[in-house]
Write a structure and sequence with these properties.
Dipeptide-binding Protein, domain 3; SBP_5; 19 helices; disordered N terminus; alpha+beta; SBP_5_dom
């Protein structure tokens, strides 16, 4: 993926005029709330702690408000694309599409999770989260000049609830009613399963133009250039090969504090390459400007070309403190072989991370031991009393060691192959398997244990092969199948695999998205993220509690209990994560001296050749 990873994104408003601030704080409430109901009026929404920016902030700390505008940013991506609709879960979306649309609110990148106004200039909500109102900025416009109204917001939510991806539908299904009270005020009425994160999902709602989508089928892939409202629009494209974004020169929100110092390129060109090797060679040849390097072998051996030695290409390793999520080899428990926890545990134990890290990853990685690493949600030791209170009603659905075996969290776990072989053979024998003539054989059927792991990147085969060898040492045959990237996601999301290489992302504040990952309802929903096929009442309940947590503090115990149950269920084989982000870029790019603790915000950079000129461009990260 290019310089704007998945699952994050942010930008805000510039010094809002006093007139606008007055509008925010004095918006009319057409239906008076019940007596004694506390109403919150604000321009900020924070999920974890307090917002770090005051109402009158001028720009984000990681943006340079004096950054020059102009030039072209060239980026790269792997694979192909066939749709300009990033919201329905269909097809392969073009990179950068989320920059086309503004959201009601937008997050900053240098604090855990705070939202600030963009299309919405202020927010009001009841203390019990029964309803929330967004007051829209009357200046907000789509790229064709049409105003963004509350009617567009109502239409967008209805469209996403009906035809959005399962993940999006899950986020918004607690919205009972949406009312456009005025052209610039929309009110959402929420079901009982609600919390502050529901407000955040609504704040992060993109607003789509009704006048465009009423003429196009939202349920399928889109190859027509859509009308947006964000800082860039699509200028041109070659289907599946390249896409060019251009700055919207009359962008309605360019003077808002959230946009100051951001979107500093006149054009952003994204070229697609068949694999990472071709992409690296193109970077070395100067065909694009910025690159994340995820392959440790490339990082140690692929950046010694002349441009690096001359200082024309800059290579940096930046600290990475963002929650890395769970990168893992995932069991598909819909398969009979993997429905037995002891089988999963035995197989998981044969992955020798210390050897892989030292021999193949240049000792640059840490073992992922929790689903929620780098957060306060990691389960350790024995369950706390508060965890036990949540788990005891489901005692019959949980392994007994959830309550009796403490979880450890080792920075540098040790590994003995001989001990793991012995443990695996014992576990498999308890599960009805036996090592016969070098083959792990089922005692009743006489069939050998064999399964297939699918991977999408050829370089991943290097780390899979030692795992395959270790499994073979106890008579298990693991076949390795490399799937073309354009088809890999389809295979996984249709649950057509035995074992797959996958990544589960999350934020600091867990919510309804966890139901899409682990809830039993999602297990039977095509395109959901419950690719494992988990069907467990305890996990269902924990994800439901997370989806209704009214504040961050209320999510901590359910999250820790969920982490414990998932880890001791051996549903995945955790892989590893890097404590640094490796980047390389040509020196005609300039980045701000103040960054974020998570990853580079490339749309805060600018072109060196523009430092004496004046234009403006936009590129939003996702």
């Amino acid at each position: 993926m290019p310089a704007y990873t998945a699952k994050v994104k942010g930008i805000l408003n510039n010094l809002l005029p006093v007139l606008l601030l007055v509008f925010l704080s004095s918006a009319v409430v057409s239906a008076p709330p019940p007596n004694n109901q506390t109403i919150i009026h604000t321009t900020r929404l924070s999920l974890v702690g307090e917002s770090s920016y005051s109402p009158d902030f001028s720009h984000f700390r990681y943006a340079n408000p004096n950054a020059p505008k102009g030039g072209t940013l060239k980026l790269a991506s792997i694979g192909t694309f066939d749709t300009f609709n990033p919201y329905n879960g269909k097809g392969r979306i073009a990179d950068g599409l989320f920059a086309l649309y503004n959201n009601l609110m937008i997050r900053s990148y240098d604090e855990p999770y705070s939202l600030y106004p963009l299309i919405a200039s202020s927010i009001e909500y009841s203390r019990d989260y029964a309803w929330v109102a967004f007051n829209l900025n009357p200046k907000a416009r789509f790229h064709d000049g049409m105003p963004i109204t509350a009617d567009d917001v109502v239409y967008t939510l209805s469209l996403l609830k009906e035809k959005g991806s399962p993940f999006i539908q899950g986020n918004y299904k607690t919205i009972e009613k949406t009312v456009a009270e005025t052209p610039h005020r929309v009110v959402f009425h929420l079901a009982e399963e609600r919390g502050i994160k529901t407000l955040a999902f609504l704040g992060y709602l993109p607003v789509l133009p009704r006048h465009f989508w009423e003429k196009h089928d939202f349920s399928t892939t889109l190859t027509t250039i859509p009308i947006g409202s964000g800082p860039v629009r699509i200028k041109s494209f070659k289907q599946g090969q390249s896409i060019v974004y251009e700055r919207v020169k009359d962008y309605w929100a360019q003077e808002l504090p959230v946009n100051k110092g951001l979107h500093n390129f006149d054009e952003v060109q994204i070229s697609y390459f068949r694999d990472s090797h071709a992409s690296l060679e193109a970077f070395r040849a100067g065909l694009y400007d910025f690159r994340y390097e995820y392959d440790p072998k490339n990082w140690h051996h692929g950046y010694h070309f002349p441009a690096v030695k001359k200082g024309q290409v800059i290579c940096e390793s930046l600290p990475f403190h963002f929650p890395p999520g769970m990168s893992a080899f995932v069991f598909n428990t819909r398969k009979p072989l993997f429905q037995n926890r002891q089988v999963r545990q035995a197989i998981a134990g044969m992955l020798n991370f210390p050897w892989i890290n030292q021999m193949l990853l240049y000792s640059g990685y840490k073992r992922t031991q929790s689903f929620f690493t780098n957060t306060g949600l990691v389960a350790t030791g024995l369950p706390t009393d508060a965890e036990k209170q949540l788990l005891r009603p489901f005692k019959n659905y949980l392994p007994s060691d959830v309550f009796t075996d403490p979880l450890t969290y080792q920075a540098t776990p040790t590994y003995s192959l001989r001990e793991q072989q012995q443990t695996a053979i014992r576990l498999l024998k308890e599960a009805g398997w036996e090592l016969r003539k070098g083959k792990m054989t089922h005692l009743k059927t006489g069939k050998p244990m064999t399964f297939t792991i699918i991977i999408e990147l050829p370089r991943a085969e290097r780390v899979v092969m030692p795992f395959k060898k270790n499994l073979a040492s106890i008579g298990i045959t693991m076949q390795v199948q490399i799937i073309d990237q354009s088809h890999y996601r389809k295979r996984v999301k249709s649950f057509d695999f035995d074992m797959a290489d996958w990544h589960f992302w999350h934020s600091e504040f867990l919510g309804a998205e966890q139901k899409n990952n682990w809830h039993s309802q999602a297990a039977s929903t095509p395109q959901s993220n419950n690719i494992i096929g988990i069907d467990n009442p305890a996990i269902d309940r924990l994800t439901e509690l997370l989806s209704t947590a009214s504040e961050y503090g209320a999510s901590v115990v359910p999250a820790q209990a969920l982490d414990r149950v998932l880890r001791q269920g051996y549903y995945v084989i955790p892989k590893w994560y890097s404590p640094t982000t490796n980047i390389a870029y040509w020196n005609h790019l300039v980045r701000p001296t103040t960054g974020t603790p998570w990853f580079p915000i490339v749309n805060a950079w600018w072109h060196r050749d523009s430092e004496e000129n004046k234009p403006a461009t936009t590129f939003l990260t996702q």
